[in-house]
Design goal:
25% helix, alpha+beta
């Protein structure tokens, strides 16, 4: 009975990734990666390990439905960094989706804003057409650097999504941009 009521977003994402050729495996609950991006109003649905490539794990966070708001999900992709990470300045950038008409209009452009700590990621990602297309299709993206419990970066999507092969290629391309940024090269 408990399995029937459980949120299956993690299962569905793992299945979608495996179906496009990405080797993804759901792992036991309680891993440290479940705590990387969570906050008091979110709970982790568990971690998916990714074999090969710069993205090593995915965590799905959920905010349960409340009286006046529907449930929300976040998909957090972990990009670990081998070696020491600078703790002097943190990076936090996100997409801003420009619409033809506020609130209801069609998305016409995507730009990146925030503090990129002199990595030039804002300019690089703002000029990348596949990244813009991805953000238009699946939702807002956010990139953060981490130096505490997790050494590396996270790429967060602000909703659940089912990736296509092209989506995954673009996500890996974003991870490659992050890892080749001047701060860590």
């Amino acid at each position: 009975m408990k399995d029937l009521l459980r949120d299956k977003s993690r299962d569905e994402l793992a299945y979608a990734l495996n179906s496009i050729g990405v080797e993804a495996q759901m792992v036991e609950r309680g891993r440290a990666e479940e705590k990387v991006e969570d906050s008091w109003y979110q709970r982790s649905l568990g971690v998916i390990d990714i074999h090969g490539g710069p993205i090593r794990w995915i965590n799905i966070l959920k905010k349960d439905r409340q009286k006046h708001s529907p449930p929300r999900w976040w998909v957090v992709l972990g990009i670990p960094v081998d070696g020491p990470v600078s703790t002097r300045q943190r990076t936090k950038i996100k997409t801003i989706r420009k619409k033809s008409f506020p609130l209801l209009g069609k998305i016409v452009d995507v730009i990146w804003k925030g503090d990129d700590a002199s990595t030039a990621l804002v300019d690089t990602l703002s000029g990348d057409i596949p990244t813009k297309t991805l953000a238009k299709r699946i939702g807002n993206l956010e990139i953060k650097s981490h130096t505490d419990r997790f050494q590396g970066w996270t790429l967060t999507v602000d909703r659940r999504f089912t990736p296509t092969g092209q989506d995954w290629e673009t996500i890996v391309k974003i991870a490659d941009y992050i890892l080749s940024s001047p701060r860590y090269s």
